[in-house]
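Below is a filled-in request sheet from our internal design queue. Each sheet records the structural input a requester submitted and the sequence that came back. We keep these sheets so that new team members can see what a complete request looks like end to end.

REQUESTER: design group, bay 2
PRIORITY: normal
MODE: inverse folding
CHAIN LENGTH: 104
BACKBONE (tokenized):
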């Protein structure tokens, strides 16, 4: 496994914005990348904007942030994508607010 670099995180963030219209805390992206040991290598070979990479990254983030299964994530992605994206963004925003307060 290759630890994601700042450049990886920036590229992953940009790819997610284009893929799912979400802006996420880099720590959430790092956790998702670290959840799949091969993701950094696949991205190095194909780029973070590659559909295989962004599909996998967004699925991991959905499962982690929303506490849903991969099957539910897939079903929601194909039937209610905008609502799923909104739920992910809202969960990210809550996570950030909770972590900001905890740091005080």
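RETURNED SEQUENCE:
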């Amino acid at each position: 496994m290759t630890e994601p670099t700042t450049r990886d995180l920036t590229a992953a963030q940009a790819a997610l914005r284009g893929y799912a219209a979400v802006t996420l805390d880099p720590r959430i992206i790092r956790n998702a990348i670290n959840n799949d040991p091969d993701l950094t290598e696949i991205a190095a070979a194909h780029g973070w904007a590659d559909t295989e990479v962004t599909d996998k990254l967004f699925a991991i983030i959905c499962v982690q942030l929303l506490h849903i299964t991969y099957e539910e994530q897939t079903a929601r992605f194909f039937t209610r994508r905008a609502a799923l994206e909104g739920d992910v963004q809202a969960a990210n925003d809550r996570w950030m607010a909770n972590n900001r307060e905890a740091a005080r």
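SHEET NOTES:
- The mean pLDDT is 92.
- The longest helix spans residues 81-103.
FILED BY: M.R.
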